[in-house]
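Subject: sequence -> C-alpha coordinates, single chain

Hey, anyone have a minute? Need the predicted structure for the following. Not urgent.
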Amino acid sequence: MRVGIFVEVVKAQFHTGISRYVKKLVETLVSQHHSDVTFYLYYQHQPGEQKLDWLTDNKQVKHRPLWTPVNLLSEHPSVWWKYYLPLVMKLDRLDIFHGPNHNVPVKSKIPSVLTIHDIAYFYMKVHGDGLDRMLKRTTLENMASATHIVAVSQSTANDIIREGAAAEKTSVIYQGYEPNPGEATESTNIINQPIASMSPYLLFIGTVQPRKNVEYLVDEFAKISSKIPHTLIIAGAPGESQRTVEQKIAEYGLGEKVLLTGFISDEERHTLYKHADAFLYPSLYEGFGLVILEAMSYGVPVITGNNSSLPEAAGDAGIKVDITIQGAFSEAILKLINDPQLKEELIEKGLTHCHSFGWEESARQMMTLYRQLARS
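Reply:
Had a minute. Here:
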Protein backbone atom coordinates (compact mmCIF):
# COMPACT_ATOMS: atom_id res chain seq x y z
CA MET A 1 0.00 0.00 0.00
CA ARG A 2 1.26 3.47 -0.90
CA VAL A 3 0.45 6.20 1.63
CA GLY A 4 1.15 9.84 0.77
CA ILE A 5 1.51 12.41 3.56
CA PHE A 6 2.02 16.16 3.16
CA VAL A 7 4.84 17.06 5.56
CA GLU A 8 5.71 20.64 4.58
CA VAL A 9 5.41 21.88 8.20
CA VAL A 10 8.17 19.53 9.34
CA LYS A 11 10.64 21.74 7.49
CA ALA A 12 10.09 24.51 10.05
CA GLN A 13 13.18 25.50 12.00
CA PHE A 14 11.21 25.54 15.26
CA HIS A 15 8.49 22.97 15.81
CA THR A 16 5.23 24.10 17.37
CA GLY A 17 1.83 22.38 17.70
CA ILE A 18 0.97 21.17 14.19
CA SER A 19 4.54 20.51 13.06
CA ARG A 20 5.08 18.44 16.21
CA TYR A 21 1.89 16.52 15.40
CA VAL A 22 2.96 15.70 11.84
CA LYS A 23 6.49 14.77 12.86
CA LYS A 24 5.47 12.44 15.69
CA LEU A 25 2.62 10.84 13.74
CA VAL A 26 4.84 9.96 10.76
CA GLU A 27 7.72 8.77 12.95
CA THR A 28 5.37 6.52 14.91
CA LEU A 29 3.67 5.14 11.79
CA VAL A 30 7.08 4.26 10.33
CA SER A 31 8.31 2.74 13.61
CA GLN A 32 5.36 0.33 13.70
CA HIS A 33 6.87 -1.60 10.78
CA HIS A 34 3.93 -2.01 8.42
CA SER A 35 5.85 -4.18 5.97
CA ASP A 36 3.37 -3.75 3.12
CA VAL A 37 3.32 0.05 3.32
CA THR A 38 5.50 2.65 1.63
CA PHE A 39 5.19 6.22 2.90
CA TYR A 40 5.56 8.99 0.33
CA LEU A 41 6.46 12.26 2.07
CA TYR A 42 5.55 15.32 -0.01
CA TYR A 43 6.93 18.82 0.49
CA GLN A 44 8.07 21.81 -1.52
CA HIS A 45 11.65 22.11 -2.68
CA GLN A 46 13.41 25.15 -4.07
CA PRO A 47 16.44 24.90 -6.38
CA GLY A 48 19.57 24.81 -4.24
CA GLU A 49 17.61 24.21 -1.05
CA GLN A 50 18.81 21.40 1.20
CA LYS A 51 16.46 18.42 1.16
CA LEU A 52 14.70 17.34 4.33
CA ASP A 53 17.05 15.06 6.27
CA TRP A 54 14.46 13.02 8.12
CA LEU A 55 13.76 9.27 8.05
CA THR A 56 15.95 9.04 4.96
CA ASP A 57 17.54 5.75 6.09
CA ASN A 58 14.20 3.95 6.31
CA LYS A 59 13.44 1.76 3.29
CA GLN A 60 9.69 2.24 3.76
CA VAL A 61 10.01 6.01 3.33
CA LYS A 62 10.26 7.78 -0.02
CA HIS A 63 10.91 11.51 0.06
CA ARG A 64 9.08 13.44 -2.63
CA PRO A 65 10.57 16.96 -2.56
CA LEU A 66 8.65 18.66 -5.36
CA TRP A 67 10.33 21.46 -7.27
CA THR A 68 8.11 24.49 -6.75
CA PRO A 69 8.38 28.10 -7.89
CA VAL A 70 9.01 30.45 -4.99
CA ASN A 71 5.90 31.07 -2.85
CA LEU A 72 3.59 28.98 -5.06
CA LEU A 73 2.05 27.22 -2.06
CA SER A 74 1.58 30.39 0.00
CA GLU A 75 0.51 32.77 -2.79
CA HIS A 76 -1.26 30.39 -5.20
CA PRO A 77 -2.39 27.43 -3.09
CA SER A 78 -5.11 26.38 -5.55
CA VAL A 79 -2.45 25.64 -8.20
CA TRP A 80 -0.63 23.35 -5.77
CA TRP A 81 -3.65 21.58 -4.28
CA LYS A 82 -5.88 21.34 -7.37
CA TYR A 83 -3.36 20.57 -10.11
CA TYR A 84 0.29 20.05 -9.24
CA LEU A 85 0.12 17.71 -6.23
CA PRO A 86 -2.80 15.60 -7.60
CA LEU A 87 -0.81 14.96 -10.79
CA VAL A 88 2.24 13.78 -8.84
CA MET A 89 0.06 11.61 -6.59
CA LYS A 90 -1.45 9.94 -9.65
CA LEU A 91 1.99 9.27 -11.12
CA ASP A 92 3.09 7.81 -7.77
CA ARG A 93 0.02 5.51 -7.84
CA LEU A 94 -0.98 6.31 -4.25
CA ASP A 95 -3.64 4.28 -2.49
CA ILE A 96 -4.39 6.95 0.11
CA PHE A 97 -3.33 10.54 0.83
CA HIS A 98 -3.26 12.25 4.23
CA GLY A 99 -3.36 16.02 4.62
CA PRO A 100 -2.46 16.37 8.34
CA ASN A 101 -2.75 20.15 8.35
CA HIS A 102 -6.22 21.23 7.12
CA ASN A 103 -5.64 20.68 3.37
CA VAL A 104 -6.16 17.90 0.83
CA PRO A 105 -6.09 17.91 -2.99
CA VAL A 106 -9.59 18.92 -4.04
CA LYS A 107 -9.45 17.47 -7.56
CA SER A 108 -7.99 14.04 -6.93
CA LYS A 109 -9.76 10.68 -7.22
CA ILE A 110 -7.38 9.16 -4.68
CA PRO A 111 -9.05 8.65 -1.25
CA SER A 112 -7.95 11.28 1.23
CA VAL A 113 -7.81 11.85 4.99
CA LEU A 114 -8.00 15.41 6.29
CA THR A 115 -6.90 16.26 9.82
CA ILE A 116 -8.55 19.32 11.39
CA HIS A 117 -6.83 20.58 14.54
CA ASP A 118 -9.17 23.45 15.32
CA ILE A 119 -11.30 26.05 13.59
CA ALA A 120 -10.79 28.97 15.95
CA TYR A 121 -10.86 31.34 12.94
CA PHE A 122 -14.58 30.57 12.53
CA TYR A 123 -15.29 32.07 15.95
CA MET A 124 -12.69 34.74 16.67
CA LYS A 125 -9.99 36.84 15.06
CA VAL A 126 -6.88 34.70 14.77
CA HIS A 127 -4.81 35.73 11.73
CA GLY A 128 -6.54 38.92 10.64
CA ASP A 129 -9.84 39.41 8.80
CA GLY A 130 -8.59 38.65 5.30
CA LEU A 131 -6.68 35.48 6.13
CA ASP A 132 -9.39 34.24 8.48
CA ARG A 133 -12.00 34.62 5.70
CA MET A 134 -9.79 32.69 3.30
CA LEU A 135 -9.21 29.94 5.87
CA LYS A 136 -12.95 29.58 6.45
CA ARG A 137 -13.54 29.22 2.72
CA THR A 138 -10.73 26.73 2.12
CA THR A 139 -11.59 24.71 5.23
CA LEU A 140 -15.16 24.23 4.02
CA GLU A 141 -13.88 23.27 0.56
CA ASN A 142 -11.40 20.78 2.00
CA MET A 143 -13.95 19.22 4.34
CA ALA A 144 -16.29 18.70 1.39
CA SER A 145 -13.52 17.20 -0.76
CA ALA A 146 -11.94 14.84 1.79
CA THR A 147 -12.99 11.21 1.85
CA HIS A 148 -12.71 11.21 5.63
CA ILE A 149 -12.09 13.90 8.26
CA VAL A 150 -10.13 13.29 11.44
CA ALA A 151 -10.63 15.71 14.34
CA VAL A 152 -8.11 15.73 17.18
CA SER A 153 -10.83 16.06 19.84
CA GLN A 154 -14.56 15.58 20.22
CA SER A 155 -14.89 19.33 20.72
CA THR A 156 -13.28 19.97 17.33
CA ALA A 157 -15.44 17.27 15.74
CA ASN A 158 -18.56 18.95 17.11
CA ASP A 159 -17.38 22.31 15.75
CA ILE A 160 -16.66 21.12 12.22
CA ILE A 161 -19.94 19.21 12.00
CA ARG A 162 -21.74 22.35 13.17
CA GLU A 163 -20.00 24.25 10.35
CA GLY A 164 -21.00 21.76 7.67
CA ALA A 165 -18.75 18.68 7.79
CA ALA A 166 -20.60 15.42 7.16
CA ALA A 167 -20.98 13.59 10.48
CA GLU A 168 -20.85 10.18 8.79
CA LYS A 169 -17.34 10.81 7.48
CA THR A 170 -15.94 12.49 10.62
CA SER A 171 -14.20 10.69 13.47
CA VAL A 172 -11.96 11.54 16.41
CA ILE A 173 -8.40 10.27 16.71
CA TYR A 174 -6.68 11.82 19.70
CA GLN A 175 -3.10 12.78 19.08
CA GLY A 176 -0.31 11.66 21.34
CA TYR A 177 1.77 13.93 23.50
CA GLU A 178 5.49 14.27 24.13
CA PRO A 179 6.03 12.85 27.61
CA ASN A 180 8.64 13.74 30.17
CA PRO A 181 11.92 12.44 28.70
CA GLY A 182 13.22 11.61 32.16
CA GLU A 183 16.91 12.29 32.55
CA ALA A 184 17.18 14.48 29.47
CA THR A 185 19.76 17.24 29.60
CA GLU A 186 18.51 20.31 31.42
CA SER A 187 19.12 23.93 30.56
CA THR A 188 20.75 25.71 33.48
CA ASN A 189 19.70 29.12 32.19
CA ILE A 190 16.53 30.50 30.63
CA ILE A 191 17.29 33.68 28.64
CA ASN A 192 20.52 34.08 30.63
CA GLN A 193 18.89 33.70 34.04
CA PRO A 194 19.69 30.73 36.29
CA ILE A 195 16.61 28.54 36.62
CA ALA A 196 17.16 28.34 40.39
CA SER A 197 16.76 32.11 40.71
CA MET A 198 13.27 31.97 39.19
CA SER A 199 11.80 29.40 41.59
CA PRO A 200 9.17 29.00 42.75
CA TYR A 201 7.31 29.78 39.53
CA LEU A 202 4.04 29.27 37.68
CA LEU A 203 4.32 28.36 34.01
CA PHE A 204 2.50 29.12 30.77
CA ILE A 205 3.75 27.74 27.44
CA GLY A 206 2.32 28.97 24.15
CA THR A 207 2.50 31.70 21.54
CA VAL A 208 1.65 35.12 22.97
CA GLN A 209 -1.43 35.69 20.82
CA PRO A 210 -5.03 36.74 21.62
CA ARG A 211 -6.44 33.20 21.47
CA LYS A 212 -4.09 32.06 24.25
CA ASN A 213 -5.58 34.70 26.59
CA VAL A 214 -2.23 35.74 28.04
CA GLU A 215 -3.50 39.24 28.87
CA TYR A 216 -6.14 37.69 31.14
CA LEU A 217 -3.46 35.53 32.74
CA VAL A 218 -1.36 38.60 33.59
CA ASP A 219 -4.48 40.35 34.99
CA GLU A 220 -5.23 37.36 37.20
CA PHE A 221 -1.64 36.98 38.37
CA ALA A 222 -1.51 40.68 39.26
CA LYS A 223 -4.41 40.16 41.69
CA ILE A 224 -2.39 37.72 43.80
CA SER A 225 1.27 38.45 43.04
CA SER A 226 1.81 40.11 46.42
CA LYS A 227 0.30 37.10 48.24
CA ILE A 228 2.58 34.44 46.79
CA PRO A 229 6.35 34.11 46.34
CA HIS A 230 6.01 32.85 42.78
CA THR A 231 7.28 34.23 39.49
CA LEU A 232 5.07 33.85 36.41
CA ILE A 233 7.00 32.53 33.41
CA ILE A 234 5.37 33.05 30.00
CA ALA A 235 7.32 30.87 27.59
CA GLY A 236 6.58 31.06 23.89
CA ALA A 237 7.11 32.88 20.65
CA PRO A 238 5.98 36.53 20.54
CA GLY A 239 2.65 37.02 18.79
CA GLU A 240 0.03 39.71 18.32
CA SER A 241 -0.52 40.11 22.07
CA GLN A 242 3.15 40.59 22.93
CA ARG A 243 3.11 44.38 23.15
CA THR A 244 -0.15 44.51 25.13
CA VAL A 245 1.16 41.90 27.56
CA GLU A 246 4.40 43.83 28.02
CA GLN A 247 2.41 47.01 28.69
CA LYS A 248 0.26 45.26 31.30
CA ILE A 249 3.33 43.90 33.05
CA ALA A 250 4.76 47.42 33.21
CA GLU A 251 1.48 48.98 34.38
CA TYR A 252 1.15 46.46 37.20
CA GLY A 253 4.80 46.93 38.19
CA LEU A 254 5.44 43.23 37.68
CA GLY A 255 8.73 43.53 35.83
CA GLU A 256 10.50 41.51 38.54
CA LYS A 257 7.77 38.89 38.85
CA VAL A 258 6.80 38.09 35.23
CA LEU A 259 9.29 36.71 32.74
CA LEU A 260 8.64 36.62 28.98
CA THR A 261 11.14 34.16 27.52
CA GLY A 262 10.35 34.28 23.80
CA PHE A 263 10.73 31.06 21.83
CA ILE A 264 12.21 28.20 23.86
CA SER A 265 14.23 25.17 22.80
CA ASP A 266 13.19 21.60 23.63
CA GLU A 267 15.86 21.56 26.32
CA GLU A 268 14.48 24.74 27.89
CA ARG A 269 10.93 23.37 27.59
CA HIS A 270 11.98 20.26 29.52
CA THR A 271 13.65 22.34 32.21
CA LEU A 272 10.70 24.70 32.66
CA TYR A 273 8.19 21.88 33.01
CA LYS A 274 10.41 19.97 35.41
CA HIS A 275 10.67 22.76 37.97
CA ALA A 276 7.23 24.42 37.70
CA ASP A 277 4.88 24.57 40.69
CA ALA A 278 1.80 24.73 38.45
CA PHE A 279 0.94 24.97 34.76
CA LEU A 280 -1.57 27.69 33.83
CA TYR A 281 -3.48 27.55 30.53
CA PRO A 282 -6.46 29.95 30.26
CA SER A 283 -6.79 29.65 26.46
CA LEU A 284 -9.99 30.93 24.82
CA TYR A 285 -10.14 28.10 22.31
CA GLU A 286 -8.11 24.95 21.68
CA GLY A 287 -8.43 22.08 19.26
CA PHE A 288 -7.02 19.88 22.00
CA GLY A 289 -4.31 21.35 24.24
CA LEU A 290 -1.36 18.93 24.27
CA VAL A 291 0.65 21.15 26.60
CA ILE A 292 -1.76 20.16 29.38
CA LEU A 293 -0.78 16.50 28.99
CA GLU A 294 2.89 17.39 28.70
CA ALA A 295 2.73 19.29 31.99
CA MET A 296 0.95 16.40 33.70
CA SER A 297 3.63 13.97 32.53
CA TYR A 298 6.16 16.03 34.52
CA GLY A 299 4.03 15.84 37.66
CA VAL A 300 2.90 19.45 37.36
CA PRO A 301 -0.67 20.28 38.47
CA VAL A 302 -2.75 22.08 35.84
CA ILE A 303 -5.25 24.94 35.96
CA THR A 304 -7.06 25.59 32.69
CA GLY A 305 -10.34 26.81 31.22
CA ASN A 306 -13.62 24.90 31.02
CA ASN A 307 -14.14 25.80 27.35
CA SER A 308 -13.66 24.14 23.92
CA SER A 309 -11.56 20.95 24.14
CA LEU A 310 -9.73 21.84 27.35
CA PRO A 311 -11.96 19.68 29.59
CA GLU A 312 -11.16 16.70 27.31
CA ALA A 313 -7.44 17.31 27.67
CA ALA A 314 -7.55 17.90 31.43
CA GLY A 315 -10.14 15.27 32.36
CA ASP A 316 -10.62 15.07 36.12
CA ALA A 317 -6.90 15.59 36.64
CA GLY A 318 -6.90 19.38 36.30
CA ILE A 319 -8.69 22.38 37.79
CA LYS A 320 -11.10 23.80 35.20
CA VAL A 321 -12.12 27.44 35.56
CA ASP A 322 -14.74 29.66 33.92
CA ILE A 323 -12.36 32.16 32.35
CA THR A 324 -15.17 34.60 31.59
CA ILE A 325 -15.26 35.43 35.31
CA GLN A 326 -12.72 37.96 36.55
CA GLY A 327 -10.92 36.66 39.60
CA ALA A 328 -11.82 33.00 39.04
CA PHE A 329 -8.40 32.00 37.77
CA SER A 330 -6.50 33.83 40.50
CA GLU A 331 -8.70 32.17 43.14
CA ALA A 332 -7.87 28.77 41.65
CA ILE A 333 -4.15 29.56 41.77
CA LEU A 334 -4.32 30.55 45.43
CA LYS A 335 -6.35 27.46 46.28
CA LEU A 336 -3.80 25.19 44.64
CA ILE A 337 -0.76 26.86 46.19
CA ASN A 338 -2.29 26.86 49.68
CA ASP A 339 -3.58 23.27 49.60
CA PRO A 340 -0.68 20.76 49.46
CA GLN A 341 -3.09 17.82 49.57
CA LEU A 342 -4.98 19.09 46.51
CA LYS A 343 -1.68 19.56 44.70
CA GLU A 344 -0.60 15.99 45.41
CA GLU A 345 -3.97 14.63 44.30
CA LEU A 346 -3.76 16.49 41.00
CA ILE A 347 -0.19 15.35 40.40
CA GLU A 348 -1.16 11.71 40.94
CA LYS A 349 -4.27 11.96 38.75
CA GLY A 350 -2.34 13.82 36.06
CA LEU A 351 0.38 11.18 35.80
CA THR A 352 -2.30 8.54 35.26
CA HIS A 353 -4.47 10.61 32.93
CA CYS A 354 -1.75 11.67 30.49
CA HIS A 355 -0.78 8.08 29.74
CA SER A 356 -4.16 7.41 28.16
CA PHE A 357 -3.06 9.60 25.21
CA GLY A 358 -0.19 7.96 23.33
CA TRP A 359 1.26 8.19 19.83
CA GLU A 360 1.30 4.41 19.39
CA GLU A 361 -2.47 4.18 19.70
CA SER A 362 -3.00 7.30 17.61
CA ALA A 363 -0.86 5.89 14.78
CA ARG A 364 -2.57 2.48 14.98
CA GLN A 365 -5.99 4.07 14.59
CA MET A 366 -4.74 6.19 11.68
CA MET A 367 -3.30 3.17 9.87
CA THR A 368 -6.56 1.28 10.34
CA LEU A 369 -8.37 4.21 8.73
CA TYR A 370 -5.88 4.32 5.83
CA ARG A 371 -6.50 0.64 5.10
CA GLN A 372 -10.27 0.94 5.29
CA LEU A 373 -10.34 3.86 2.86
CA ALA A 374 -7.79 2.32 0.47
CA ARG A 375 -9.99 -0.78 0.12
CA SER A 376 -13.22 1.16 -0.40
